[in-house]
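tool_call predict_complex ligand=1,3-dihydroxyacetonephosphate
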Amino acid sequence: MRQPLVAGNWKMNGSLDSVTPLVEGIKAGLDSVTTAEMAVCPPYVYIPTVAALLAGTSIALGAQDVNDQESGAYTGEIAPNMLTDVGCKYAIVGHSERRSIYGESDAFTASKFAAARKAGLVPILCVGELLEEREQGITEQVVARQLGAVIELEGVAALGDAVIAYEPVWAIGTGKTATPDQAQEVHAFIRGKLAELDADVAAKVQILYGGSMNAGNAAELLSMADIDGGLIGGASLKPEDFLAIGIAANR
Ligand code: 13P
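tool_result ok
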């Protein structure tokens, strides 16, 4: 059985004053989450503060991005070892906001994925199609291409120590969630693609859904066979909503 993972991607939100009540609120309700691993991905600058607040809890820490280089003249960037240094377990790579707003390619994402793994981080690889790609009927092609870049660089076995997040871009921050069937279809496609290469990896890898997942729709999405958790944006900023999603993953 794959353990569900419910990870909060706080994106570029919050302040030094707001992170403490947010984390304390999650900690206060954590006993009700019996099955899922909970994780939070704060903005880089708040990671040490959040790490201190999380000490001694089961909540994992992640970063929202990572650079593919180990160190050096890369102004403004954060290296994988810096993230392990401050207590991160996870690093999101290839979020659609990185891909579409900052023009990050499949190849760069794959390189980040490789660097994260090398440093001992668990990459959360985001894949997902734009609205026009769904309308053109090329969702599977897009997702296969995004996954393929990582498999080509690192081999399929690398995905056995990683997490995949399917985030249809049209569902992110729009309140328009994919239906459970729409999400399940793509999750099953991803698992099937991996199974063609390595059945063990396919059976093991957690595939999270992301895109307007909230307290109201989580249970239905999480009941689908290939949906192993969520990557949560907006709803991860409210402890009660984030916890409700964790509780919806109770088995
Ligand atoms: P929302 O939950 O706000 O739609 O964001 C999803 C997301 O992008 C998580 O990475």
